[in-house]
Write a structure and sequence with these properties.
- The protein has helices spanning about 5-10, 15-20, 20-40, 40-55, 60-65, 70-85, 125-135, 150-165, 180-190, 205-210, 235-245, 265-280, 300, 330-340, 355-365, and strands spanning about 95-100, 105-110, 115-120, 140-145, 175, 195-200, 225-230, 255-260, 295, 310, 325-330, 345-350, 370, 390-395, 400, 410-415.
- By secondary structure, it is of the alpha/beta class.
- A 7-stranded parallel beta sheet has the order 10-9-11-8-7-12-13, sandwiched between helices. It has a 4-stranded parallel beta sheet with strand order 5-4-3-6, with helices on both faces.
- Helix 3 crosses helix 8 (about 150-165) and helix 7 runs parallel beside helix 8 (about 150-165).
- It is globular and about 75 Å long.
Amino acid sequence: MTTLELIEKTKAAWGSLRDTDTDARNRILTEMAACLEADSAAILEQNRADMADARGHISDVMLDRLRLDEGRIAAMAAGIRAAAALPDHVGRILSEFHHANGMTIYKKQVPLGLVAIIYESRPNVTSDAAALCVKSGNVCVLRSGREAIRTSTAIVAALKRGIRQAGANPDIVNILEDTSHESANVLMTADGLVDLLIPRGGAGLIRACVEHATVPCIQTGTGICHVYVDEYADLDMALKIIVNAKTSRPSVCNAEEVCLVHSAVAERFLPMLHAALTGSVQVSAQVSSPAPVELRLDERAAAIIPGTPAGPMDFDTEFLDYILAVKVVDSVDEAVAHILKHSTHHSEAIITENEENAERFVNGTDSAAVYVNASTRFTDGGEFGLGCEMGISTQKLHARGPMGLDELSTYKYIIRGSGQIR
């Protein structure tokens, strides 16, 4: 079957899902979760094969993103069940207007139709995307990266078995086994079939989709996330937050890539940061990196602690690794100006005890998520109460931040009259 034929087959299945009620969609999700867990041995076998082929070709942190175990599969199944437990927004009346001529105009929330997702070596995206699409009344076509294709295909086989067991059409969820650029191009240009394209991956994938897609496309994911340590920061809190934001999972888009430090506290704070991130001193179990972090320092930071001199692109790079760019600034306004110039509009944080500076930072930055005294690692659909997520939108239309059920919906106007003419 060609890529286009699979897209057409999936779109043809939309009517069978669109017209179901909440209970039916939740039954589908419950069976999907059960079959995912039941097929864990087969999924893990395929994952081991993917891991073997990828080893030596992708970094260790990317290998960790690709790796599955029983616990991760259980977490994926829990994510599907969490989606089932969410309130159903399909068919919700968003507003109602009574016209002077007697008509009533309703604004009703409805599914988008066919959602296509192109993603890289993250098998959990397969189940998250399928679950959110089913819950929101959408069908989906998944296109995994080649590093994870065996794993993702095995996951979809389990999900489709669950859909069949629930008495639904298994074509509401499909995956392209062709991982060539050509299959991606077909998805990007399937006008009239694909209602929304969501790329989840590195800057290259997202740029290719945004530049070449003729179907509606969401710009997602690339995260050059900043943490600014203000002159009024609690430095112990700042250290704990930065170690978490940088090292808890450096391969994800909400990990910190840049640390900005106010000059008034740089002499005190930067040695603390160096000790915690490089392992030169065991600060504590809570604020020590699991692996040494390479610090890429501007001139002022390099005058205080050892590290690698920052190159011209280090403040514009999503490292997705144990690397952190560090810069010394003289004010909250300078920090904001730097972020506006270099940010990808994903997530930024200020560490401060000064409420005025916190407000200047929150109001001055222009990102989807802005934190005061908390780690950027919370930018996630589950953490924001959305269940799982389709991705993090870094644009402003039609979605921004973690994409959940509402972001997989549109609306239509329904006008009920009694013979009115204009």
